[in-house]
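fyi for ur records
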Amino acid sequence: MLRIVNRVLTALTGLVLLALGLAVLCGGLDLPHRWGFSMPSGWPWTHGGDVLLSDHNLTKWRGEGWWWPVVIAALAVLLVLTLWWLLAQLRRHRLREVLVDSYDGGGALLRGRAMEDVIAAEAEALPGVDRARVTLTGRRTQPRARIGLVLAAHARPGPEAHRLRAEAIEHAAVSAGLDALPAEVKMRAARHRAERVN
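which gave:
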């Protein structure tokens, strides 16, 4: 989700800045006059001496009672969205460690990468699974697993998902002392060459 938001925001910001830059460059270099074309009526920058914001545009709405509350609200929303986006970038997507309850009041820390490797190895040992990729997310006391499986051509998704839940995921949850290990599983079929029939 965050990756899609990043791409959309980057693309929109880039397009807006590119269009604005080209419009200012066109007016600043006086291209309509030099190249003999006209801009649409109401176009703000048509001559080389035009400024981005005139004194009239800068002071146009200051006398209105709604102007400053709208400006402050828009800037506050922009600030909140920017901070949310920044914190989302800084947040670790992959869980580094899982807290294993040792039932003595303490606990032990299990490396997240080690748990991912164990789940992936057990998933790949299942019949019908060619490859598995596991990523742990969430909190260290309540991890979640994102599992990507590449199934062999003869495998059926339903039984493979049931086996994965009953074996690899359940074993990982029990060994880490977790009540449950929620998992999101994405499956796809392995690509293979077409067989030639004689």
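The mean pLDDT is 81. thats all i got for now
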